[in-house]
Amino acid sequence: MNKWFKTGKPYIWLTAGAVSVSLIAVLGLLALIAWRGLSFFWPAAIHEVEVRANDGSTQVIIGEVYDREEIPIERLQESGVTLEGFEGETLERQLFKVGNREFVPLDFMWVMKPQIIRDETPANLAVIERSKDGNFYGYVVDVLENGESVATSDNLRDVLFERIERAVELNEKASELQQGPIGAINYELNQLRLESRALELEGQLTEAEKQRIADEEQALRESYKELEKELFAYREAASRDTVVMKDMRGMEVKLPMYRVLDATFPNDMGLFSKIGHFFVQIGKFVSEDPREANTEGGVFPAIFGTVFMVLLMSVIVTPFGVIAAVYLHEYAGKNAVTRLIRIAVINLAGVPSIVYGVFGLGFFVYMVGGSLDQIFYPEALPSPTFGTPGVMWSAITLAILTLPVVIVSTEEGLSRIPSTLREGSLALGATKAETLWRIILPMASPAIMTGLILAVARAAGEVAPLMLVGVVKSAPMLPVDGNFPYFHLDRKFMHLGFHIYDVGFQSPNVEAARPLVYATSFLLVTVIVGLNLTAIGVRNHLREKYRSLEH
């Protein structure tokens, strides 16, 4: 036995076992997140249940079963709930999502299973997805056009889907008009205002300049009026139709079609229809804007903000990290100053991320950004341009946070390159700079990509510093649009990590937000894995390309 331990094999097996357990735990965690998140998009059955209250009265509830749990009888008795004739230590209660927020106090309702006296899933129960007030559950009674019925019992669903498609198309045209040409006019009007202010500060606002600016403003306002008429025409056309629903109270409710996004009949769906609907809902989740305080809709602005910020951070951190590593390894002498710099770089990797956020807010935002506003944007003051948190300061802050990772990884790659290659290049007449540019850095590029991979993995998941230097709950505009200069690095942005925090801990509707936390978490992991796989592919390509130089 002692001889076996001396061979070191037990430690190999222990290490392999620890790695296996860790891998299984990580995969299990990802599977749990994926299951809890992706199941949210599966079309659940809609129940119509009749519930008997403690006083003997009955109530009809229409909704989907959102959750189930076993609860001790003692806990119910302590809370004042009495269930006569029930024997046992625990009972099951079900959480129903009943929607219809404008007509019920809460759109989620707990029901004790013994209180249910009837539970059915009628095929004609519908789920109406709306842009406001969440889902509406009930029976489709009629479709109206300008107050007149346009559907019969035979073609009710066909007419409903046709009118919904029409309303959605008109709303999309109105949204494109508002965010496109109308938004561009508003942007140009603001630029003219800033130009007028700048000329005034410089003492060059002559009468001719005033007249020119006034003429341009007038032309823009005339165009705005024409576009506004077109916008109102779209909205008026979209508000023509109405769907009449019968809710769980037995009352008929008229829902304006311009607020309806989709209608489904989950109880009447087959397996393939449910699979198709599942992928459609996932597509909407990753391509649409959030609604209802981030508890409804999609997360596209957060995806875009995360990827854009990480790419911008990568562009900033890579050259600085490589230059610092090259200096420390190739040029710096082996003295106390160099050792001090190395210690400082290593210690920077252990600084809490929130400290970087405070530093970014104080130095980059208030000092650097405020100075830029004073020098280049005085016409916009007192409204700050760069003297306020934005995507540029977030990228620079995270670049400093991940800089030690890139430096250490690059320096390790430089140290693995044989000195004979340097000496051979110099012997053939190349300068040190040429050797570095043509031989050393290409061979060290896989190590540089490794450092970038680690930097991206850390930066994409950071939230604490971003809360101070640029991320917001809801960004009205993306950092990239069609207005010159197209990349607006001064704008705030949304981030998947902060979105998870906001939905999970700041949401007014906890039950509605819970599955979105899992879905967004799985999406964040997917985005990070996608970015890393792209970087790994580039690294492997570079490794194969320059492998011949090692021999």
From TrEMBL:
Name a GO CC annotation attached to this entry: plasma membrane
* Pfam family name, one: BPD_transp_1
Q: Start and end of every ABC transmembrane type-1 domain?
A: 303-535
Query: Which InterPro entries does this entry report, sorted A to Z?
Result: MetI-like, MetI-like_sf, Phosphate_PstA
Q: Which SUPFAM superfamilies match?
A: MetI-like
Q: In which broad location class does this protein mainly occur, judging by the first location in its UniProt entry?
A: membrane
| Chain segments annotated as transmembrane | 12-35, 299-328, 340-366, 386-408, 439-460, 516-538
Membrane disposition: Multi-pass membrane protein
Task: Name the Gene Ontology biological process terms.
Answer: phosphate ion transmembrane transport
Q: Where in the cell is it found?
A: Cell inner membrane; Cell membrane
* Molecular function, one GO term: phosphate transmembrane transporter activity
Q: Which residues form a coiled coil?
A: 189-237
Q: Does the keyword Heme apply?
A: no
Q: Keywords assigned by UniProt?
A: Cell membrane, Coiled coil, Membrane, Transmembrane, Transmembrane helix, Transport
The similarity annotation says: Belongs to the binding-protein-dependent transport system permease family. CysTW subfamily.
The name under which this protein is listed is: Phosphate transport system permease protein PstA
* Taxonomy of the source species: Bacteria, Pseudomonadati, Pseudomonadota, Gammaproteobacteria, Alteromonadales
Q: Which gene encodes it?
A: pstA
